[in-house]
Amino acid sequence: MTTDEVLAGVGPRLRRIRKEREVTLAALSEATGISVSTLSRLESGLRKPSLELLLPIAQAHQVPLDELVGAPAVGDPRVRAKPLVRGGRTHWPLTRQPGGLQAFKVLEPQRKQEPDPRSHEGYEWLYVLSGKLRLVLGEHDVVLAAGEAAEFDTRVPHWFGSTGEGPVEFLSLFGPQGERMHVRARPSRRARGE
Predict the structure, then answer these.
(1) Residue 184 CB: number of other CB atoms within 10 A?
(2) Of 177, 132, 171, nearest to 154 (Cα)?
């Protein structure tokens, strides 16, 4: 809708609102300090609406200014991120710009897994929303409960997942380096001489 179309709709809207409230032009003039002739020209579209004229009218009718000008409705503010499922784990992206800090809400189902620590460049932060999250980080093997957080350098071999006691929901934040695929922390069999 163009500006001219929006402005053309203001006059009829002003008349409709005034008539719905059963207010005369004279009464509105008294309440707003705007002359009857100016109000009449606004309603008929012969006078272009301005903020100085619309504000007192909105106050007199006790309506938001948006209602007088017919501003388009603001879009739905809810985030409707499409979940990604990787390795049985469901990820909801909370950020949309590639290359910067990445945030995900993650749901790990109840399952028993053998930890497979990996490492990569970057830094990661985890916050448990519900359930229990097992974190293997270097020599540490800890369980984080709801409300607990962990932060670590991802160059340290790490793994996190379900404790096997139930599903776990958590937030995961990492920098651009964390977007790269995890690299195995253990040396390959060939490197170990097997």
Answers:
(1) 11
(2) 177
What value does the mean pLDDT take over residues 171-178? Answer: 74
pLDDT at 45 over 50: yes
CA gap 48, 94 in Å, rounded:
44
Record the tokens describing residue 42, joined without a space: 């606004």
Closest to 126 (Cα-Cα) out of 135, 115, 117, 113: 135
More confident: 1 or 173: 173
Of 184, 137, 192, 190, nearest to 161 by C-alpha is: 137
Answering whether pTM is above 0.85, one says: no
pLDDT-based confidence at 42, cuts 50/70/90? Answer: very high
- Most distant CA pair in the chain: distance in Å? 98
Cβ distance 90 to 81 under 8 Å?
Answer: no
Antiparallel, parallel or unpaired: β 183-184 and 118-119: antiparallel
**Cβ-proximal residues to 157 (8 Å cutoff; 6+ apart), any chain:** 117, 118, 119, 137, 138, 185, 186
